[in-house]
Design a protein that fits this description.
The complex is a heterodimer of chains A (about 1150) and B (about 450).
Chain A (H helix, E strand, L loop, with lengths): L1 E9 L7 E3 L6 E5 L6 H12 L10 E8 L2 E8 L2 E6 L2 E3 L14 E3 H5 L9 H9 L5 H9 L8 H29 L1 H41 L13 H35 L8 H41 L3 H5 L4 H30 L8 H21 L3 H31 L5 H21 L4 H12 L9 H59 L8 H48 L8 H52 L7 H37 L10 H15 L1 H21 L2 H59 L4 E5 L8 E5 L4 E4 L5 H20 L6 E4 L7 H18 L3 E5 L3 H12 L6 E4 H6 L26 H8 L23 H9 L8 H4 L3 H6 L6 H19 L8 H7 L4 H13 L4 H10 L10 H13 L11 H9 L2 H5 L4 H16 L4 H4 L1
Parallel strand pairs in A: 3-13, 3-14, 8-12, 12-13
Antiparallel strand pairs in A: 1-2, 1-4, 4-5, 5-6, 6-7, 9-10, 10-11
Chain B lengths: L12 E6 L14 H4 L9 H15 L3 E4 L14 H13 L3 E4 L8 H8 L3 E3 L7 E7 L2 E8 L12 H6 L11 E6 L1 E2 L8 E2 L1 H7 L3 E5 L6 H6 L6 E3 L17 E5 L5 E5 L5 E9 L9 H19 L5 E9 L5 H10 L6 E4 L2 E10 L7 H5 L4 H14 L2 H18 L5 H4 L10 H28 L1
Helix pairs in contact in B: 2-3, 11-12, 11-14, 12-14
Classes of the chains: A alpha/beta (about 1150), B alpha/beta (about 450).
């Protein structure tokens, strides 16, 4: 696809539209100063290709392309991309994915600064370029390289620790379980020991029993020799005898005393004069009667005194009403009320008469025979006249009213007429206006009719003057009104006076009537007085004032008489009861031998005397009884004491009063008592022991003697001592079991372990995930390398080799490192890691890789390449080489290449380089001229290209001479075949060798990059074909391999480090040892294993094994046998390369190489033979 | 659980069958946040699950409780695990519930020892000899349980061979025979009594209740309508995140006619689940936690409708779908930004055990694959893995070889002995890892190159 036209209307930074039209040439140099818009061309084309690139909305570009002879047109407006194919709307052509854009748009920074880390990781960048710009290493690094080899070790350690803890606790539990399992056995032992302890008690008891039996026998024997009667003695017999004798004497004396007391009590009984004792209740009753009698006498005295006093009062009251005559009149209560009622009526009548007369006196008539009435009537006429005058209208107001009335009448008429007219002409509803006119006019008219008539004021004025009232006013409103008020005031006064006079007259008549009634009642009262006088049997009725006092005296008399009667009755009653009681008491006293009493005092005295006699009588009886009882008791006690005394002697088997015999016996009694108690105690104990032993089913022990029991006791004591020990142990086990059962120790440890396992699982997942990612990316990369990369790599190698004039070969490394690409310096066969390349070479390499990949992904569409100052870092020779290569690319593929530069000298250099490659001259687009109408190029500058170095020609020199002249390094198979100088391959064809050297092909390894190229064909056109040269190269490779067999690659510090088998501590010392052993892996391992070197103290065996494995896997440790010359020759001759070479060539080569190699290296003596 | 499964006057019998309990352990993977939600982690242990089951058995007045082995964890089988087991069994016996157990490989010591301590606990098949017990109700036999116990930790032969060669005489032909066995079903060998399904079928028993595998499978047999259902009862509570789904004891109703009706009872206080959450349309990465919680809530409601809401729910989330925020989401997942995500939803504590990236790329894989560059090659592999075609098999095999060096490292050896150990190099695991790594790499490849273009 070729760009035919590109128009940029708008881009960020481009505001003035411009357009470029590429020419037919394939290579275009777009020149222009910085900022003119060269890079915008790239962005514009990218924006047309891929809508997901160039996110800016400020974009408007279009372009025309040619693809397979057909025209495609594309337009980008904002985010929208539109394509037309041959003038019709179309989908875009099948372009590579947008992420491949870097393959077609190469900027200087892409090549110079391929990564954010500068040029440090160039190998990855090369690979990235060949992978289409995908930085798989970075992706792997970012996504899948976060955990290391040791990931999970910490968690594993934690797991081990947790597991160890669990095992420890589990072990403890196992031990505890074992002990718990022994519990039954321990309990049996415990029971046995406890049983032994229990039997020990019985044996001890049995031992005691045996001893006690022995003791009992001794006591029994001693008792048998003592008197039998001692059994009846207590040892207190002498004391008892003395006591009893004393009691007998004492009781005899007492009996005599009591008999005397008995006689005296009988005499006192007779002296009391009573035959039977008096009852206490009876005495109490009598004493109360005597006291009552005394109280009667006191009351009687008081009643008599009261009667005297009341009688005196009665006499006073009689005296108050006239002496004893009145005393005969029986004034009762009814008489008193009549008297008092009469007194109240008389008084009331008298007071009423006085009050009425007083009021009549005050109500003297003031009336002057109707004079006020007439004066009032005279005033009423003028008053009415003046009011009429005032009600009549004024003459002036009539005139004003007429005017106003006329105005309203006219207005009403106007409204009427207008209303009617409009109603007729416009709308009947307007007749409302006419109605309003009627409404106004009618009241005015009627008001006028009412006011018409004669002058009423004049009529009133005349009438007033005729009334004759003085003080006619000036006939004006104010004067008339004042006059009217004056007359009305006078009339009101007169009217009020007339009304008051009428009221007094009514009162007067009423009082007179009342007075007449009171006066009429007086005769009745007088009659009543007479009646009272007669009924009260009074000589005369005193005046009313005295009559009141009389009535009160009568009342007091009545009260006094009543009291007198009461007092007299009370005296009589008391006298009667006193006499009765005194009589009773007198009878009683006389009956008991006392004299008759006269009053209460003598009664009480006699009663006291009787009481004393009764007391004496009772005491005598009691004393008599007491003395009799005591005498009987004393007699009994006396007999008992005498009897006991006799028993003491008889109990000892002695005659009564045999005190000597008793004394003798008693001397032996203490010993007897002691022996007896001992025997009793022992017998009891023996019985108890036997019973207890029988109860414990140990009755057999009773039959054993003390010796046997002693032995048994010792045996059981030893067993019993274990009881506590076993009890403690059982309790301890139970406590531990309970604690373990209720604990969660292992459960928590398991939880911890599970947590660690979870973490470990996570670690493994992470490690596997990352390894999965690495595997996947590696798989992708491998497939790409196998399917795409060979093409890309081959093309990149071809381009790179061409760009570098075959000084370098791009090769895949054999190590396991991520960056497998290495650049082989074909002159030195040195494999350079890419970061060791110069900047220029690196740019060449990157460019080669990028172009190779671009060719791959465009899949025949051959998109234009844009190189934005991509070659600035190249020196002239490299520049020429690259441009030549690009020229060939453009020419061979018909690919447009746009080289964007601000250096005008580049135009000349490009032209020169293209011319050298027989390519068309480039087209120049001066963007400065396009955009600013100012040419950017002042003119091509001279292009200087460094000449290639010349190679010495053979000029008839022998092979050895020529080799020496070239300074060829000796053949050293240990460096591998690629490193060997081509001289060793073509020593027999020095001209061909010279040609190869002229083209920069110096090392055997370079041929692989040349083979298959035009150069190989060109070089092979001489004496030896390219294939034969290749076969010789292969044979040399086989020779070197066989030569090196059994030697192993040398080990150095880097190898040791890569093995990951050594810790930092041992890395340096072992590297030193390796160096001392010339890198011999076998010797190194022997030294390490021997542990004789002090530097290896503490080195672990497992690390040795790991190191050995690494060395074996990576060729540092070669266990194969070392080949001698013949063996090597035979095996090498059997190789395909040897068989395909012309006859004898292989043998000759092998022989020569063996000799040369043997000169260089010191082969082992045995093998050289 | 308010559901009542039978009335006391019913003629039918109820048997509660309990699978692996592993007393003496706790469930792993619980975050610390659980405690702050007012949930005691002790209430989520196997011991707590057993207590709930015993409560249930007593409440439902079941006639017997069966234990299918691995009642305790062998590491902790001597004391700590015994106490809750002993208490539970005593409670059952006090409630006059028959207790029949077999010993699994974990409790070869513990269970016989406990049986010697507790009168009434019947351990069948001690010493590796088949044995039967009759379950009775009202002194009438209702079912026969035939069982076999591990006599030692490892048993490499099928115990069914003995049963088939020396069959036990049935107690009665009118009552169902239920086999109770702790074994490794359809294993190609191994140390844990490997048996085959055909052996179970050949016994002619009415049902086989198995222990050993923690994932319940009995329901599969029931769903398949097997005449003689057989399968694993599963662990009583999910012991780690790998033990997803419904866990709990099985209630077996033995009808008066001898028919067996089995139903798993959702009693596990802790439930693990794996759910998928789509990131489609996710505009801001900060919205993802809300989306996760919303999905969790939705799931809780589904469980609620099914009547099986656990006390705590541990979720492993698989992010699916495509989002522009692909790389940011991956970064946050890797950084563990959402590790502490969780909350109490409708009374259930929900936490997110792990968030797994299974997102699709926001790229047209088919378009990218239509080429030969590395991106295309990678896209081709991803598509191949997704389609599981022949090429993916080769890729898996190659990856397995490559990863075997890593996976066989000594430091991972404890993972091989894990209870829920899975082959990290199985096809499924490898495919998952390859897809995950491939997508991440492809996204990075395209992004990096596009960024370069943009710059």
């Amino acid at each position: 696809m070729k760009l035919r036209r590109l128009r940029i209307n708008r881009l960020p930074g481009i505001n003035v539209p411009f357009e470029i039209v590429p020419q037919e040439a394939t290579v275009h140099v777009v020149i222009g100063p910085n900022g003119i818009g060269k890079s915008s061309l790239c962005r514009a084309v990218e924006a047309l290709y891929w809508s997901d690139l160039e996110p800016s909305q400020r974009i408007s570009v279009n372009g025309e392309f040619e693809l397979d002879g057909e025209t495609w047109w594309a337009e980008r407006e904002g985010s929208r991309v539109r394509w037309q194919h041959n003038g019709a709307e179309s989908t875009p052509p099948n372009l590579p994915a947008s992420y491949n854009h870097n393959c077609f748009f190469l900027r200087l920074r892409d090549l110079i600064d391929p990564s954010t880390e500068g040029t440090r990781n160039v190998a990855s960048e090369i690979r990235r370029q060949m992978l289409g710009g995908f930085d798989l290493d970075k992706i792997v690094s970012d996504l899948f390289s976060r955990v290391g080899e040791r990931h999970g070790l910490r968690e594993r350690k934690q797991f081990n620790e947790a597991q160890l803890q669990i095992q420890q606790v589990e072990g403890e539990h196992t031990g505890l379980q074992r002990r718990a399992d022994e519990l039954d056995s321990l309990k049996v032992q415990f029971a046995k020991a406890e049983s032994s302890g229990s039997r020990l008690t019985h044996v001890t008891r049995a031992l005691g029993l045996a001893g006690r039996r022995r003791e009992l026998a001794c006591v029994t024997e001693e008792l048998s020799v003592l008197p039998v009667n001692l059994a009846n003695l207590t040892g207190k017999e002498l004391s008892h005898i003395e006591n009893y004798q004393s009691q007998v004497q004492e009781l005899s004396s007492r009996m005599r005393t009591l008999e005397a007391q008995l006689a005296k009590a009988g005499k006192d009984q007779l002296d009391s004069g009573l035959e039977t004792p008096l009852a206490l209740a009876q005495l109490m009753t009598w004493r109360e009667n005597a006291e009552q009698l005394s109280r009667f006498e006191v009351e009687l005295d008081a009643a008599r005194n009261e009667y005297s006093s009341v009688h005196a009062e009665l006499e006073g009251a009689l005296f108050a009403i006239g002496g004893s005559k009145v005393d005969k009149v029986e004034l009762d209560l009814h008489s008193h009320s009549q008297l008092f009622e009469f007194l109240r009526a008389t008084e009331k009548n008298k007071i009423g008469v006085d009050a009425v007369e007083e009021r009549l006196r005050l109500l003297v008539s003031l009336d002057v025979n109707g004079e006020r009435q007439r004066a009032l009537e005279k005033l009423l006429g003028p008053i009415e006249t003046l009011r009429s005058w005032l009600r009549a209208p004024e003459p002036e107001s009539i005139s004003g009213g007429k005017k106003a009335r006329y105005f309203w009448m006219i207005a009403a008429a106007t409204l009427f007429v207008v209303g009617v007219s409009l109603a007729l002409a416009v709308d009947p509803i307007i007749s409302v206006i006419a109605a309003i006119g009627v409404g106004i006019g009618l009241p005015v008219f009627l008001g006028h009719s009412r006011q018409a008539g004669p002058d009423q004021r004049q009529v009133a004025q005349d009438a007033f003057e005729k009334s004759g009232v003085n003080g006619a006013p000036v006939w004006e409103n104010s004067s008339v009104e004042e006059c009217l008020r004056d007359l009305e005031s006078k009339a009101a006064n007169l009217d009020a006076q007339i009304k008051r006079e009428r009221d007094r007259d009514v009162d007067r008549r009423s009082l007179k009537n009342k007075l007449e009634i009171l006066v009429d009642a007086q005769p009745g009262l007088d009659d009543r007085r007479q009646e009272l006088q007669a009924s009260l049997n009074l000589d005369e009725i005193p005046p009313d004032a005295e009559l009141i006092d009389f009535a009160l005296s009568l009342d007091q008399l009545r009260l006094a008489r009543s009291k007198d009667n009461g007092a007299k009755g009370k005296v009589n009653e008391l006298e009667k009861r006193h006499a009765e009681l005194l009589s009773f008491m007198a009878g009683m006293l006389v009956s008991h031998g006392e004299v008759r009493p006269t009053d209460a005092t003598t009664t009480m005295a006699l009663l006291n005397q009787l009481t004393d006699r009764d007391a004496k009588f009772k005491k005598a009886i009691a004393d008599k009884q007491t003395a009799a009882d005591q005498l009987q008791q004393a007699t009994s006690d006396h007999d008992t004491a005498a009897q006991l005394l006799a028993q003491v002697y008889s109990g000892a088997g002695l005659e009564t009063n045999d005190l000597h015999g008793l004394t003798t016996l008693l001397n032996s009694l203490p010993s007897y008592m002691e022996q007896t108690r001992a025997r009793t105690r022992l017998e009891t104990q023996v019985q108890l022991d036997q019973a207890e032993l029988a109860k414990a089913h140990e009755g057999d022990l009773c039959a054993l003697d003390e010796l046997a029991l002693g032995r048994l006791n010792d045996e059981l004591s030893r067993a019993a001592e274990k009881v506590n020990e076993l009890r403690d142990e059982i309790a301890s086990i139970n406590a531990q079991v309970d604690s373990a059962r209720s604990g969660h120790g292992i459960q928590e440890l398991i939880a911890t372990q599970n947590g660690v396992l979870t973490n470990l699982h996570e670690c493994r997942s992470e490690a596997l995930y990352e390894q999965t990612g690495r595997f996947l990316m590696n798989d992708v990369e491998q497939e790409h390398e196998q399917t795409q990369m060979p093409r890309v790599l081959e093309r990149a190698r071809e381009l790179f080799s061409a760009f570098t004039h075959h000084h370098y070969e791009l090769r895949l490394g054999s190590g396991k490192e991520e960056a497998k690409l290495i650049a082989i310096d074909l002159q030195s066969s040195e494999g350079l890691s890419l970061e060791k390349l110069s900047d220029g070479t690196r740019v060449q390499l990157l460019l080669a890789a990028r172009i190779a990949f671009a060719e791959d992904v465009e899949q025949g569409r051959t998109l234009p390449l844009f190189l934005d100052e991509a070659l600035d870092q190249s020196d002239p020779a490299r520049f020429e080489a690259i441009v030549s290569s690009l020229g060939r690319v453009a020419k061979d593929q018909g690919r447009q290449i746009f080289y964007l530069t601000s250096d005008p000298a580049d135009v000349g250099r490009i032209k020169h380089a293209l011319a050298m490659e027989n390519c068309d001259a480039p087209a120049v687009i001066d963007l400065g001229l396009v955009r600013a109408d100012a040419a950017s190029v002042s003119g091509p500058s001279a292009l200087h290209v460094d000449p290639r170095s010349s190679v010495l020609t053979p000029n008839g020199m022998s092979a050895d001479e020529y080799g020496a002249a070239l300074g060829v390094q000796p053949l050293d198979p240990s460096f591998g075949y690629a490193h060997q100088h081509f001289f060793h391959l073509l020593w027999d064809d020095l001209d061909l060798l010279h040609k190869l050297l002229t083209h920069g092909i110096e090392r055997a390894g370079q041929w692989k990059t040349v083979l298959g190229t035009a150069l190989a064909v060109k070089l092979g056109a001489h004496s030896k074909s390219p294939e034969e040269i290749a076969l010789r190269s292969e044979l040399l490779e086989i020779f070197c391999a066989f030569w090196n067999q059994g030697h192993g690659r040398p080990v150095d510090r880097e190898v040791l480090e890569d093995s990951c088998a050594l810790s930092k501590r041992f890395l340096d010392p072992i590297a030193d040892i390796a160096r001392e052993l010339d890198g011999d892996a076998k010797k190194l391992l022997n030294v390490i294993r021997s542990r004789e070197d002090e530097r290896l103290s503490g080195f672990r065996t497992s690390s040795v094994e790991k190191l050995e494995q690494y060395m074996r896997e990576n060729g540092y440790l070669d266990e194969q046998p070392i080949l001698d010359k013949e063996e090597l020759r035979l095996q090498a001759l059997a190789s395909p390369a040897a068989t395909r070479l012309p006859e004898g060539v292989a043998d000759e080569c092998l022989n020569r190489w063996w000799i040369l190699a043997a000169r260089t290296i010191k082969p082992e003596a045995a093998k050289l033979n | 659980m308010s559901k009542t499964y039978k009335s006391k006057t019913s003629d039918s019998a109820l048997i509660l069958a309990i699978g692996d309990i592993h007393l003496g352990t706790s469930c792993s993977g619980l975050p610390d946040e659980v405690s702050s939600w007012g949930i005691n982690p002790e209430d989520l242990t196997p011991a707590a699950a057993l207590k709930l089951s015993v409560d249930f058995a007593i409440k439902q007045n079941v006639d017997a409780v069966l234990f299918a082995g691995d009642v305790v964890e062998s590491t902790n089988a001597r004391f700590e695990a015994i106490l809750p087991l002993e208490q539970s069994i005593r409670r059952l016996l006090e409630a006059e519930i028959q207790v029949v157990a077999i010993a699994g490989n974990h409790d070869v010591e513990a269970l016989p020892r406990l049986a010697a301590l507790i009168d009434g606990l019947e351990v069948l098949g001690a010493g590796g000899q088949w044995e039967s017990r009759t379950i009775t109700k009202n002194q009438q036999p209702v079912a026969e349980i035939v069982g076999w116990s591990f006599g030692e930790r490892f048993v490499r032969q099928s115990p069914l061979a003995q049963l088939l060669s020396e069959p036990l005489e049935p107690v009665s032909s009118s009552i169902p025979r239920i086999g109770l066995l702790h074994a490794d079903l359809d294993a190609s060998g191994g140390h844990y009594a490997p048996i085959r399904q055909v052996e179970l079928d050949n016994t002619g028993y009415d049902a086989w209740l198995l222990g050993h595998i923690h994932k319940p499978s009995l329901q599969n047999s029931l769903d398949a309508g097997d005449a003689a259902p057989s399968g694993y009862l599963g662990s009583l509570v999910g012991l780690d995140v790998s033990e997803t789904g419904l866990h709990g004891p099985w209630l077996i109703k033995v009808s008066g006619h001898g028919d067996l009706i089995m139903e798993q009872v959702s009693l596990a206080p802790l439930r693990w689940e794996q759910i998928s959450v789509s990131v489609d349309g996710l505009e801001y990465v900060e919205d993802l936690p809300d989306r996760l919680l919303a999905e969790a809530k939705k799931f809780i409601r589904q469980l609620s409708e099914a009547g099986s809401v656990p006390r705590t729910l541990g979720l492993r989330v698989r992010l699916e779908g495509a989002s522009h925020q692909y790389e940011e989401i991956r970064r946050k997942i890797a950084a563990g930004d959402w590790n502490a995500l969780g909350q109490v939803i409708d009374g259930t504590g929900v936490f997110f055990n792990k968030i797994i990236d299974s997102m699709d790329l926001h790229l047209d894989l088919m378009e990218i694959a239509d080429g030969a560059d590395p991106a295309a090659l990678l896209a081709q592999r991803i598509l191949s893995l997704q389609h599981n075609d022949d090429r993916s098999a080769a890729l898996l095999e190659a990856a397995r070889v490559e990863l075997s060096r890593i996976s066989s490292k000594d430091q991972w050896s404890p993972l091989r002995d894990q209870r829920s150990a899975m082959d990290p190099l199985s096809d499924e695991a490898l495919r998952e890892m390859l897809l995950q790594a491939g997508k991440a790499a492809l996204q990075a490849m395209v992004s990096n190159n596009t960024e370069q273009g943009s710059s």
